[in-house]
Each structure stands twice: as structure tokens, then as C-alpha cells.
Specification:
This protein is mainly α. It is built from 18 helices and no strands.
Length: 473
């Protein structure tokens, strides 16, 4: 028989092992299980689309399978949004293809001119818009090549080609959407809320620390979060009413956070430069001028957690702004006794600090809207939409990209007609796809090289699979 102390030790050890196993299981469920579930959903949607396409005896079941591969995403909102714009772009491209074939079925020259104009407009539209709206313009462009170009050879099969293409894509979109929505859906809006709160928390800790060094890495992380939020915001509006109500608020938060973080970085760079130049009194004066704001943004050494603490922070920032002039005059009066002080640098830093506090107050006012009543959110959305109604677009690169896409189609079309190239339609389709798809890339040639490398690798793999497949059979 075991003694009581031994039993107590065994029980404690068992409880420790059970706690460790429970924590490991929770970590696995939170980190690894979503990825495994996504892979399962991905394969299920692909097999479902392929089975339906084969069951319906479609001409190209691979198109349905490829559609699932293209639109499938970890987040359900992304799948719905991309499917929606892919369907809209395909339908518009098919309708315009049928219209061109009806007008110019017997004359290729006006057909190519109209098609080039359409490709140019779609390429330009893909640059003017963003996210999956841009993808919709790309689809509307190269669908013309997929449907319209083969129809020029057999105009009487135009409707059959268009309906087959639309049916195959529809099967793929339906399969991906149903599987993504019905089986373990992953909502974008939950991720957006987590990113917004995490970004606010990280910036509060950075600003509360007041350290003028090591700003590059946090700033890059902030910019990455901004890009991710903008992409998520455009897709989450298809998920829930709350996501639609908050769409403009998230956009406003992104803009205001960009302003406040940039001003903070500029101020800290100014302090760093003063320290490098040996102007320590000016740097210390600016640091002291910012200290009340750095202390206010953290409550008990941590970022705010609820609405009440956020209200306290808003009051503290407002009080800082109201007393800023007095605090600034006190700092200048203290520096008057220091010889060879560059007051211009201090004035510049003070101006940055005042702008930082103003932008931070605006950011907090928008941040609190995430938990505000619906009526307040809607009124804010209307005001923000009125302010951002006029967007500035640089039309020169847009026009260049549109002309590039149109010229690509005309050049390949001329080669196809002149040489009677058997693969001319495929070459034109690939040329238009690459010109429209990569028009918005910051480095189109690098992207095109990567695309070409992937095509070559895919051809090699297809060749090997066919050779070994015939050998096995």
C-alpha cells in the first residue's frame, strides 16, 4: 500500500500530465487543426466539382476543377468574394464576346480592333480598382479570348462555347462556395477584429515605451497589417451585416493609422538625428514634451482593454492637446538658459507632436466606433464617404497598361493571321492573360519570369506524368 504522501505526489503528477496534454491539444486545435480542415475542404471541393462536371458530361471538366483551385481560400469571405467577381467578369466577357461575333463574324480586322479596345479598357480597369474587383476586370478581358477567338472560326458554335464555359465555371464556383460555407467556415470579420485590436495594442506599447530606436521592424509590421486589413475588408462585406456596417470604419481606421504612425516615426527620427549631432538638450526637451502623451496611452503600463479605459485615454489625449501650448512654452523657457540651443529644431518637433496628438485623437474617435451603436456608425460612414468621394488616380500608368494590353492582342493576332499559326488562339489567350493579370505588378518582368518558370515546370511535370502513366498502364 502506498502512503498518503506518495498518493499525493502521484495525483499531482497525473494532474500535471493531464494539464500538459490539455494545453497541447488546445494548441493543436488552435494552430494545426484549421490548416488540416482547410486541406480537407480544398480536396472535397475539388473532387465535388470534378464529379459534377463528369456527371453532367461537360466538354472540359478540368475547367471546373481549375476554378476551384483558383477561388478556394482559407477564409470563407475570400471564397465568396472571389467567386462573385469571377462570375461577374466571366458573364460580362461572354456577353461582349457574343456581341463582337454577331457584329464581325466575317471580318477579322474590325473584330481584332474592337477586341483590342476591350482588352485595353479591362486592363486599365484592373489598375483603377483593387482586390477582387480588379480580378473581375481581368476575367472580363481574357474571357473574350477564351470564348470569342474560337467563335471566329465557327460562329455557329458561339452560344455552345459560351454556355459550356459558363457552366463549367459555375460548377467550380458553386462547389467551392458550398464547401467553404457549410463545412467549418472561417470568418474574415473575426480575423479583422483581431488584427485591428492587435495593431492598436502594438502601437500603444511602442508609443508608450517612447524608445527612439528600433522602429523599422514594427513599422513594417504595421504596413503589412494595413495591406491585410484592406484586403480583408473588401471581402468580409459578403459575410455578415456587421462586417458591412463596419467596412467604412475599417477603411477610415487604416487611413488614420497610417497618418498617426507616420508622424510618430518622423518625430522619433528627428530625436535620433538630434542625438547623433550631439544636440542633447533639444532631444531631451522634445522627449520631455512627449512624455505626458506616452504615459497617457498606457493605463497601468498596458494598453486599454475596454470602452471605459478607451474613454479615459480619449480624455487624456484631449487634455494633452489643450495644455500643449503651456507645456511647450515651459520647455522653451527652460532651454533659454542653455547656450547655442537650436530652437528651430524644437519648434519642428513640437509641431510634429501637436500633429501626432491631433491624429491620435481622430484615430481613437474612429476606433471607438467598433463598439458604438449602429446609428452612430452609419452617420460616420456617410460623412466618411462624402469626404472620400473624390479619389485621385494617376491616369498615365493606367493608360500605358491599357495600351500595352491592346498592343499585345493586336501583335499576336497579326502573327496568327499572317502565319496561320495553329496555336495562335492559345498564344493570344496567354498573352492577354499575362498582360492583364500582371499589369498592376510593381515589377512586371520579374513576375512574368516567375510565371514562365512555373509554366515550364508544369509542362515538364505533365510530360513525366504522361510517360510514366502510360508505362504503368
Amino acid at each position: 500500500m502506498l502512503s498518503t504522501p506518495h498518493k499525493r505526489c502521484i495525483n499531482q503528477a497525473m494532474r500535471g500530465v493531464f494539464a500538459c496534454l490539455q494545453q497541447a491539444g488546445a494548441d493543436w486545435y488552435r494552430q494545426d487543426f484549421p490548416l488540416i480542415a482547410y486541406l480537407f475542404k480544398y480536396l472535397l471541393a475539388a473532387f465535388l466539382a470534378l464529379w459534377l462536371a463528369l456527371k453532367m458530361e461537360m466538354d472540359q471538366p478540368a475547367t471546373a476543377l481549375l476554378t476551384v483551385v483558383i477561388v478556394m481560400h482559407f477564409r470563407s469571405g475570400m471564397v465568396i468574394t472571389k467567386s462573385y467577381y469571377r462570375l461577374i467578369g466571366t458573364v460580362i466577357g461572354i456577353l461582349f464576346s457574343m456581341l463582337l461575333v454577331a457584329w464581325f463574324a466575317q471580318d477579322r480586322f474590325p473584330f481584332f480592333m474592337a477586341a483590342a479596345l476591350w482588352i485595353g479598357l479591362c486592363t486599365a480597369g484592373s489598375l483603377v480598382t483593387r482586390n477582387f474587383q480588379s480580378y473581375g476586370f481581368v476575367l472580363a478581358g481574357y474571357t473574350l479570348c477564351i470564348v470569342g477567338l474560337p467563335a471566329t472560326l465557327t460562329p455557329w458554335h458561339t452560344f455552345q462555347i459560351a454556355s459550356t464555359r459558363l457552366s463549367e465555371i459555375g460548377v467550380g464556383l458553386l462547389s467551392a462556395t458550398l464547401v467553404s460555407e457549410l463545412i467549418l467556415p472561417q470568418r474574415l470579420w473575426e480575423n479583422i477584429q483581431a488584427v485591428v485590436r492587435g495593431k492598436f495594442r502594438d502601437f500603444s506599447l511602442l508609443m508608450g515605451a517612447g524608445a527612439p530606436a528600433g522602429l523599422n521592424q514594427p513599422f513594417l509590421k504595421f504596413m503589412q497589417d494595413l495591406y491585410q486589413l484592406e484586403s480583408f475588408r473588401a471581402s468580409a462585406q459578403f459575410e455578415t451585416d456587421e462586417a458591412r456596417w463596419h467596412g467604412t470604419t475599417i477603411n477610415q481606421l487604416n487611413m488614420q493609422f497610417m497618418a498617426v504612425s507616420t508622424t510618430y516615426i518622423v518625430f522619433q527620427r528627428l530625436v535620433q538625428r538630434l542625438l547623433r549631432l550631439g544636440q542633447r538638450p533639444e532631444a531631451e526637451a522634445l522627449t520631455a514634451l512627449m512624455q505626458p502623451l506616452s504615459e497617457a496611452i498606457l493605463i497601468d503600463g498596458r494598453p486599454v482593454n475596454d470602452v471605459k479605459e478607451l474613454a479615459r485615454l480619449q480624455q487624456a489625449v484631449t487634455a494633452y492637446l489643450q495644455g500643449f501650448d503651456l507645456l511647450h512654452r515651459q520647455q522653451l523657457h527652460a532651454l533659454a538658459t542653455v547656450p547655442r540651443v537650436n530652437t528651430l529644431e524644437v519648434e519642428t518637433g513640437a509641431e510634429l507632436l501637436q500633429r501626432l496628438a491631433t491624429e491620435l485623437a481622430a484615430y481613437l474617435n474612429t476606433y471607438v466606433l467598433l463598439v458604438a451603436p449602429l446609428s452612430l456608425r452609419q452617420s460616420n460612414d456617410r460623412a466618411w464617404n462624402a469626404e472620400t468621394a473624390h479619389m485621385q488616380i494617376d491616369w498615365l500608368p493606367v493608360a500605358i497598361a491599357g495600351a500595352r494590353g491592346a498592343f499585345t492582342l493586336l501583335l499576336l493576332g497579326a502573327i496568327w493571321i499572317t502565319l496561320d499559326w495553329p496555336s495562335g488562339i492559345l498564344a493570344m489567350t496567354l498573352g492577354v492573360i499575362t498582360s492583364t493579370l500582371f499589369a498592376g505588378s510593381p515589377a512586371p518582368m520579374a513576375t512574368l519570369r516567375q510565371f514562365a518558370a512555373g509554366v515550364v515546370l508544369g509542362i515538364a511535370l505533365v510530360y513525366l506524368s504522361n510517360v510514366f502513366g502510360h508505362m504503368i498502364m
